TrEMBL record:
Belongs to the spermidine/spermine synthase family. Pathway: Amine and polyamine biosynthesis; spermidine biosynthesis; spermidine from putrescine: step 1/1. It is found in: Cell membrane. Homodimer or homotetramer. Catalyzes the irreversible transfer of a propylamine group from the amino donor S-adenosylmethioninamine (decarboxy-AdoMet) to putrescine (1,4-diaminobutane) to yield spermidine. Residues 237-475 form the PABS domain. This is Polyamine aminopropyltransferase. The gene is speE. The keyword Cell membrane applies. The chain crosses the membrane at residues 27-53, 59-79, 91-112, 124-146, 167-186, 192-214, 221-242. It holds the Pfam family Spermine_synth. S-methyl-5'-thioadenosine binds at residues 267, 341, 375-376. It comes from Ideonella oryzae. The lineage of its organism: Bacteria, Pseudomonadati, Pseudomonadota, Betaproteobacteria, Burkholderiales.
Length: 535
């Protein structure tokens, strides 16, 4: 319940200082802090995820986005000191602005990235950081204004200590809930664009609540109501059209017919088709092209499998597309293949979609293969029984573009691999391009050697990727195999020696082992591949 406040007169409270209300109003004002905190964190996470999706997983980009956002929030908090009158009206306007700018941020960035030329990263980065800073400043204004409104509205109940305690409790709780929900629920089920519009509507909902609560004391109530209605309608329209917008943006970005697009808790999965064949993209990064993936997977698997002689137990780490497993299952001696892939959506797609199972020959449903959807690092650490030893271990992870992937290229991880490798077995690691990322390639070799493994590096030409590298690791020297499985399209016994010859521009360079505590490989990789994308 509220009672009327007379117009502003000398000595009277400001118009936005609402009278005493029932405690439900107080609770809902505090609940709005929870919503504000949740929305603010979503916009920050969305910007970071989009930089990862659209520009590649870059630790530098994600860190600078968080830093810029937090700094902008600090600027917003400082600017709040200059807002003294009509606090509710100003708060209402800020909520609508945050809802519009933050809610449309993912959609705007998708559209901009799809519309700009591939080489024109500078304009996109300017837009990205401009939006991040703008949203950060607006979010930084919110909490100080809420605290001041609460202080004026319930000044009899709140001292400064209680006020700060109450507001920050709801603020941090909102951040906690979203931090958990964003990767587990929001992105997998709504996608980034829908998530943005949805939380923009929540910000607009806070504005509508303030409009109703202070309806008898706000000046220009009708104008505020029209503004709220316009923002809500805009964001609802965006939410309804999010799927079409995503489709349009991805169609422009990939330039091919998109057969499948899904968002998991870990990545955006897109499968495209053209006259040249089928391509798989994870977070916008090409993983294989059907016209030449056989070159990559034959080179990855057969030098280790054939040299072992008669492998019975094989472990595949990564490789959720089932292509490496397809090559492994060509050996009659194989009795058991364990495939450890973090993303269950990947293995489900490549086990059930006819177009994709045709590429991997149904390997993921072969009775000899067991799929484990866990983090490879944790799985290896947990499985230290004597029977958890393998004749061949195939390590087919994405490149170390961030620390989450970089940990899978460290001495700590390779020590675990060593513990699971049979005395006469071989492990093989896909190891980026020794031509483009030369130091990164030899860093992986140095890391494997640091845990006591013997390394045998080699490379192969895969047209979709260029010159690509691999490293065999074992407890004994590698010797060329006496035979290869029939029906291979790329590898031959006579052609194998050429793969192990490194010309001067790919020859070994000094490199330090990659350790979990420092992960220097991530920085080296980013620097080397970043030079390739510079105009």
């Amino acid at each position: 319940m509220t009672v009327s406040v007379p117009p502003d007169v000398p000595g009277a409270p400001a118009r936005d200082e609402a009278p005493s209300t029932v405690s439900a109003a107080e609770v809902l004002l505090l609940a709005s802090v929870f919503v504000i905190a949740a929305c603010g964190l979503v916009y920050e996470l969305s910007a970071g995820a989009l930089a990862s999706y659209l520009l590649g997983d870059s630790v530098l980009q994600f860190s600078t986005i968080i830093g810029a956002y937090l700094a902008a929030m600090g600027v917003g908090s400082w600017l709040s000191r200059f807002i003294d009158r009509q606090l509710v009206a100003q708060f209402l306007r800020i909520e609508l602005l945050v809802g519009v700018v933050g809610g449309t941020l993912p959609a705007a960035l998708f559209i901009a990235h799809s519309s700009l030329p591939v080489a024109a990263q500078a304009p996109f980065l300017v837009l990205l950081y401009a939006l991040v800073v703008l949203v950060g400043v607006l979010v930084g204004l919110e909490i100080p204004l809420v605290m001041r409104i609460l202080k004026r509205h319930f000044q009899a109940r709140y001292g400064l200590k209680d006020l700060v305690s109450q507001v920050l409790t709801f603020d941090y709780l909102g951040a906690l809930v979203v931090a958990l929900a964003f990767p587990l629920l929001l992105v997998p089920h709504l996608g980034l664009i829908r998530t943005g519009f949805f939380f923009g509507l929540l910000n607009a909902g806070v504005a509508v609540w303030a409009l109703w609560l202070f309806r008898r004391s706000l000046r220009h109530w009708r104008a505020h109501a029209l503004a709220c209605a316009a923002v809500v309608v805009t964001l609802l329209a965006g939410l309804a059209g999010a799927e079409r917008l995503t489709t349009w943006a991805e169609d422009r970005f990939y330039g091919e017919t998109i057969l499948l697009r899904e968002t998991s808790a870990y990545q955006r999965v897109v499968v495209t088709r053209s006259r040249a064949g089928i391509r798989l993209f994870l977070n916008g990064n090409l993983q294989f092209h059907s016209r030449d993936e056989y070159r990559y997977h034959e080179a990855l698997v057969h030098p280790a499998m054939a040299a072992q002689g008669a492998p019975r137990k094989v472990l595949v780490l990564g490789g959720g597309d089932g292509m490496a497993a397809r090559e492994i299952l060509k050996y009659p001696s194989v009795q058991q293949v364990t495939l450890v892939e973090l993303d269950p959506q990947m293995t489900r797609l490549f086990a059930t979609q006819p177009l994709l199972t045709a590429l991997n020959h149904g390997s993921l449903t072969d009775p000899r293969l067991k799929v484990v959807n866990e983090d490879a690092f944790g799985w290896l650490a947990a499985h230290d029984r004597p029977e958890d030893v393998y004749d061949v271990i195939v390590i087919d992870f994405p490149d170390p573009t961030n620390f989450a992937l970089g940990k899978l290229y460290t001495t700590t991880f390779y020590t675990l691999v060593d513990q699971h490798l049979a005395a006469d077995g071989y492990a093989v690691v896909q190891t980026t391009s020794p031509l483009v990322a030369r130091k990164s390639f030899w860093t992986v070799a140095a890391t494997l050697e640091a845990v006591g493994l013997t390394t045998t590096p080699y490379h192969a030409d895969v047209p979709s990727f260029g010159e690509w590298g691999f490293i065999l690791a074992s407890h004994r020297p590698w010797h060329p195999p006496a035979a290869l499985p029939p029906g291979l399209r790329f590898l031959t016994l006579s052609g194998l020696p050429a793969l192990f010859d490194f010309p001067p521009d790919m020859a070994r360079v000094p490199a330090e082992p990659n350790r979990l505590s420092t992960q220097g490989l991530v920085h080296t990789f980013e620097e080397e591949w970043g030079q390739v994308h510079q105009p």
